[in-house]
């Protein structure tokens, strides 16, 4: 990596990730009306993809990279029920046990409601009185729990240890019912972490000491230029009507919203925060950081993928190691990028970001920038972005070596 100051003077604190990526006709992230998300920035409408959407896509790819999963759900009791059924428990007892697990933590709960049927035991009187009735032993926690996937086996193990009490216990039928399982033991499992939670964080105020400050910050992605939302009318052909030719019209008609554009994406990882989450374990810091960097730049939200297949890769990826604070380049695009005829938006976006990077680093003082580098598809001479690398893995490896002090035999975490 290209250095501007001796890293021994200022230890690495943040690794910033800047991405310029063109996305064709798509709707990566819809709102509650299935519309394209937008934002008005620089008095121009931009297409937007929420940080939550791109962070989820990143987390899913990240989990594949490190071979660990975290489970976020209100239905943890049902998941424990399935685990116990796989272990050979009778279904009624497994359902009761799962309900007692969900009801046994510090998190308040409610009973799930379903449309009454003979299968779930509702009688005609209940069906007439309430279109949706409480289902005994189907417990939902009021807050989403976020735990390592291995926590399911641990919670099932608690049920195994207390099987006799569960066999004689009453079903959970209302929110005031008490679990026969030990609350402190269940809460202890809900506090468990793995690499996913240590990196992305967890908010769980209902359980003491379960919260984890995330080491990753992700910005909403937005187009570098003004965009329009386009409506796509479509119809579905009824094959038999077409074959028999005995009627006119389609089997279904509808429309969807889409847009296209060049996005600026930004994220940063706080190395000291990650170190405080996992302790003095440089190898784990290296593994989690590297996996996140790779996952973020290659991830893509999957909305409407079957009808748009917008599987592009970034045009430019820029990584920067900083000593004091993150630095987003979003302000480079407050003035929307303009395109001359036939030039598109990616090239002028890269040029605008590169110029802004040089000016911003100069204003802040180059001593804060410990290292920087970039990779691209079809862009050259981006001198304000540091050293050029051939591939993503080369760039990530270089930034990790520099940020973690491996070139100089020291550790910043």
Task: Give me the secondary-structure topology.
Layout: E1 14-26, E2 38-41, E3 44-49, H1 51-66, E4 70-73, H2 76-86, H3 91-103, E5 109-114, H4 124-129, E6 133-141, E7 145-148, H5 151-161, H6 163-168, H7 183-190, H8 195-200, E8 216-218, E9 221-223, E10 230-236, H9 239-244, E11 252-270, H10 271-278, H11 282-298, H12 305-308, E12 316-322, H13 346-364, E13 369-376, E14 387-388, H14 392-403
Parallel strand pairs: 13-14
Antiparallel strand pairs: 1-11, 1-12, 2-3, 3-9, 4-7, 5-6, 8-11, 9-11, 10-11, 12-13
Protein name: Type I-E CRISPR-associated protein Cas7/Cse4/CasC
Pfam family, one: Cas_CT1975
Organism: Streptomyces radicis
Describe, in plain words, how this protein is organized in 3D.
The chain contains 14 helices and 14 strands. The strands form 3 sheets. Strands 1, 2, 3, 8, 9, 10, 11, 12, 13 and 14 form a 10-stranded mixed sheet that branches. The chain is α+β, with helices and mostly antiparallel strands and 413 residues long. It holds the Pfam family Cas_CT1975.
Q: What's the structural domain tally?
A: 2
Principal-axes geometry comes out as flat
- Cα(first) to Cα(last) distance is 19 Å
Which segments are poorly predicted (pLDDT under 50) over 5 or more consecutive residues?
3-9, 121-127, 408-413
What key attributes describe this structure?
alpha+beta; 413 residues; two-stranded antiparallel sheet; disordered N terminus; CRISPR-assoc_prot_CT1975; 2 domains; 14 helices; disordered C terminus; Type I-E CRISPR-associated protein Cas7/Cse4/CasC
Quick summary:
The protein is an alpha+beta fold.
